[in-house]
Amino acid sequence: MLEACSLTCSKRDRTLFEGLSLAINAGELLYLRGPNGAGKTSLLRLLTGLSEPENGRICYNGKDIKHTRADYFSDLLYLGHKSGTNGSLSALDNLNFWLAQHDIHQSTEVLYRVLETIGLVGLEDVPVRYLSAGQQRRVALSRLWLKPAKVWVLDEPFTALDSKGIYLLENLMKQHIQNGGLAIVTSHQPLSENAGAHRVFDLEYRF
Amino acid sequence: MWKWLHPYAKTERAYQLCITLQPWLWVGAILCLSIGTVWGLAFAPQDYQQGDSFRIIYIHVPSAILSMSTYVAMAIAALVGMVWQWRTAYMTMIAMAPIGAALTFIALFTGAAWGKPMWGAWWVWDARLTSELILLFLYIGVIALYGAFEDKQQAGKAAGVMALVGVVNIPIIHYSVEWWNTLHQGATISKFDNPSIAPEMLWPLLINLLGFAFFIGAVTTIRLRNEIVLREQHRPWVQALAEQALLPHKTRER
Amino acid sequence: MSLYQGIFKRDMHIAFKQKAELVQPLMFLLMVVTLFPLGVSPSPDTLQRIGPGVIWIAAILSSLMAMERLFRDDFQDGSLEQYVLSGMALPAVSTVKVVAHWLVSFVPVLLLSPLLAMFLNLTFDMYVALLLTLILGTPLLSLIGAIAVGLTVGLQKGGVLLALLLIPVFIPLLIFATSAVDSAALQLPYYPQLAIIAAMLLLAAALAPFAIAYSLKVSQN
Q1: Do the Cβ atoms of A78 and C88 come within 8 Å?
Q2: Whole-model pTM?
Q3: The CA-based dihedral angle spanning residues B86, B88, B89, B94, taken in that order and rounded to the nearest 10 degrees
Q4: Number of CB pairs < 8 Å for A and C?
């Protein structure tokens, strides 16, 4: 269970949110909504521990993530606006190095299979820079298949994806939730039925 | 032990503290500077070698000493900000930066002006002047880094790191430059060394030094108040303050 | 430990895929050095006198150009976020990256140094001293430079700012390094200068990783 207690965050001396609390249980999908500049990305980055809140704390399974970083990170998968892939490396190299950093062991076969699922057959060895935006997004998303993480924090995961890709991803999220994982997702387009049941959390723009 | 300081981490309390301190600092600054300067420039005895031109030390020495101290104070503020996560500490740091830079510039300018009659040239690569020049570069770096960020909270933290890097370097720079100077110029007599200064020359200097310190404090409080109001302009207490300030004008207009 | 080896391997891998970026600062170094005989004087005595300073100034300037590579790509493409979330200690990650960066951008400078010494008519003794100062001094450039790169990596135009921040900090190194070579020219011992540079290097090695990690965190915010 992921819990945020009275978070305060300000950017450029503007308070984005104050005293914000929310809890996400295992087996739950939280759909975070809000206009541009409301602080969705900032909230997600706080939840991952990438940035620290001015006030408040974030607990995973009842423990402050500040003190249990290593445990939390091994259960966490974050995909942000930036893909986290290096343009001059191939999809395969990128994923291999990423897996090594996160201490996850997957066989090459699994890697190829995932890249096939996500629709990158034949592009495994092409430097990522030469792929289209949607394909680059797919490379980043393939991590969802590779890391057995319980907590997914996905910032605009549908950007640049075609309808087939969206369908694939929504199905995967549904499966993840059914398996007892939890996920928090931002998106400007509403989630479809394929994503399964989900709770909506609205973040308002403050002046 | 430092608990009494913690309330001042709140911007509002820091603002109030500035208001309380400001008049005292101004009184100290005006008093010390007028006494020290008049005494130093008009009544202190002439130097038997340098005549009246030595009197520039009453400006040069305090600004040179305090330009270094201000940098160290900035680094301390940055460290406080880092350790206790105080926004006001970073604000204080950046409030002091331009003052320190200005002092460094004054020290350089007066040093150069002194150099003209002493060495016959406006600029000589004297060890202390060179150190001051590098100190000015360090100030410029911190100020430029702060200015480059749009998010001023982030800017404060970044500039704080640079101030700390600088303060670790200041002694290294100081000694390296001194050493470089002795290598290249042989043993030139530094005009700023005055090992046995007469007491009637020394007193005004010390008073002026104190006056400069008060003056820096006073200007820092003004700049800190500005910074706080500017950064917190959306907060209710600042808006209340602004309304209060505007109120008399409004009633008068009516 | 193997986690950090992975980062090292990745950085080397990427570096060798971007050879142009590695070679350009090196060519810049060569060209700056070439300017001095043309701009000052080609007389062997003059060159020998200004040589150590010229090589070190050129090395510092070219290092400023190469420095940005250190975190820029990782920051822009989001790899840095993933590093943080891997749970590895950020100071250690930065140290590994600095070492990798030093190997690909400064070892070539060491290899180029005999040519530069020849251009500027340095004697063999002077060259040995120069090489020693470069070996001890360039890691120092990398370590301190990485702090400033960490601070400026999130800025749109960090290039000139990086130079403004770093040049004053590099001055002591320049002084000690050139004076070591000057002492060598006069057949004087230059261990003291080397010892001071080594001391600065050790100090930087102890403190810089934490400063780099902190500055990267600030940039992440």
Answers
A1: no
A2: 0.90
A3: 140
A4: 75
Is the CB of residue A12 less than 8 Å away from at least one CB of chain B?
yes
B134, B158, B176 ranked by CB distance to C215: nearest: B158
Q: Are C24 and C68 in contact (CB under 8 A)?
A: no
C144 CA: distance to closest CA in chain B (Å): 9
Contact C3/C89 with Cβ under 8 angstroms?
Answer: no
CA atoms within 13 A on the CB side of C18: 23
B-chain residue closest to A10, CA distance: B153
Interface residue A14 vs chain B (CB under 8 A): yes
Strand-strand pairing, A29-33 and A182-186: parallel
B152 vs C214: CA distance, rounded Å: 17
Please state the ipTM of this predicted complex: 0.92
Low-confidence ranges of chain C (pLDDT < 70): 1
- Closest CB to C87: pick one of A69, A85, A87: A69
**How confident is the model over B163-206, as pLDDT tens digits?**
999 999 999 998 898 888 877 654 444 445 555 667 777 888 89
Judged by a CB distance cut-off of 8 A, whether residue A192 touches chain B is: no
Q: Nearest-CA distance from A15 to chain B in Å?
A: 9
**Mean pLDDT across B16-29:** 93
* Contact present, A165 and A117 (Cβ < 8 Å): no
Domains of chain A: 2-202 (3.40.50.300)
Tokens of B153: 């909270």
CB contact at 8 A, A3 and A45: no
